[in-house]
Q: What sequence folds into this?
């Protein structure tokens, strides 16, 4: 189905992104998967050709582009190339919003040039061992002491936690105020008392590291406060629609790659003397998935246009994330089934895609939370 949301400049960007993923990422997929982490050099290569932090003002090396279509293209070409997870989505879809739109001029001078070049990899630390979707329940504290904050606590499930040079950390600056006492403070790698713990052994998305972090009397200058003190919860909520839309875009890109691989496999693989795609049950399954993909794409493209116009609501973003990832999982599971025993062998890309897809219904807020958000908006 023809897509109508892109302009010629997007086509040029797509060609650049695809060439980068084909040359600098896809060939390293197996090595990164085994290592459980990507090489920092690939971030520098991406930064050098304008694939990171394009929202940043030109004076800091960016392009001043606040157009989520570029974010979508990055995700789509990453999957189309067969690349393993790198973490660029976190950098561009999520962290850019904090570092470009919520920072002071002094903070931008410190962080944005490195963010754009790939020298500074950023992460956000919200989840804790005892607090996931319930953000108000976080226990990590930051106590003001003169010109500093002193941070104590622990975080877990932090994407890019090992590689990160700058971690935007959700803390309680007023432990008595619930969600109204949360602030965001940037903690730089190497700060005394700030420790990167275990690199977590995950089911999927293995090449993009996920870590535990600990804060033991970490003294951070007050100038590292992101946004306003005790307004961190609202800053986080402001970014969630774009984050959840990003997850929906991943769902479509990953599902499309799976269907393409499966279609090719069904043409080549023979059983009982004929390609398995000629059997009606398989032909119909691929037809159904293709139609669902078209519907997913139209739905998500409409959301991309809405977020660009500043019109995408939190409930609409939750709906996109919920529906797209549920459809994605159905498609991924069916594609693996159509590969038969080969689908369960790790050397086949479909196996990695299937493993990687499972997290989609969990992060960015579980799909159960998405349903609750939508239900409450309906008045229940």
A:
């Amino acid at each position: 189905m023809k897509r109508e949301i892109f302009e010629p400049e997007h086509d040029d960007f797509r060609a650049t992104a695809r060439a980068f993923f084909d040359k600098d990422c896809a060939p390293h997929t197996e090595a990164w998967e085994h290592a459980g982490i990507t090489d920092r050099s690939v971030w520098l290569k991406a930064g050098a050709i304008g694939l990171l932090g394009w929202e940043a003002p030109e004076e800091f090396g960016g392009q001043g582009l606040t157009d989520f279509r570029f974010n979508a293209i990055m995700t789509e070409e990453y999957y189309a190339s067969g690349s393993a997870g790198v973490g660029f989505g976190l950098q561009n879809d999520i962290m850019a919003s904090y570092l470009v739109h919520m920072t002071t001029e002094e903070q931008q001078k410190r962080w944005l040039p490195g963010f754009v070049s790939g020298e500074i990899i950023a992460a956000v630390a919200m989840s804790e061992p005892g607090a996931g979707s319930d953000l108000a329940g976080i226990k990590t504290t930051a106590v003001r002491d003169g010109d500093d904050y002193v941070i104590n606590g622990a975080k877990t499930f932090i994407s890019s936690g090992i590689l990160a040079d700058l971690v935007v950390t959700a803390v309680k600056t007023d432990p008595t105020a619930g969600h109204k006492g949360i602030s965001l403070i940037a903690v730089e790698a190497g700060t005394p008392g700030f420790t990167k713990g275990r690199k977590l052994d995950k089911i999927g998305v293995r090449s993009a590291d996920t870590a535990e972090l600990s804060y033991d009397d970490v003294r951070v200058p007050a100038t590292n406060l992101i946004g306003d003190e005790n307004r961190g919860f609202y800053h986080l909520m402001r970014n969630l629609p774009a984050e959840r839309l990003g997850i929906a875009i991943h769902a479509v890109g990953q599902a499309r790659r799976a269907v393409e691989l499966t279609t090719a496999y069904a043409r080549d693989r023979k059983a009982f003397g004929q390609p398995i795609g000629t059997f009606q049950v398989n032909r119909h399954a691929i037809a159904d998935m293709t139609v669902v993909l078209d519907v997913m794409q139209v739905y998500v493209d409409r959301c991309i246009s809405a977020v660009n116009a500043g019109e995408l609501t939190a409930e609409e973003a939750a709906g996109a994330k919920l529906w797209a990832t549920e459809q994605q999982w159905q498609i991924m599971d069916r594609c693996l089934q159509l590969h038969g025993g080969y689908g369960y062998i790790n050397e086949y890309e479909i196996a990695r895609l299937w493993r990687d897809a499972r997290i989609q219904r969990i992060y960015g807020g579980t799909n159960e939370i998405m349903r609750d958000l939508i239900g409450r908006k309906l008045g229940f």
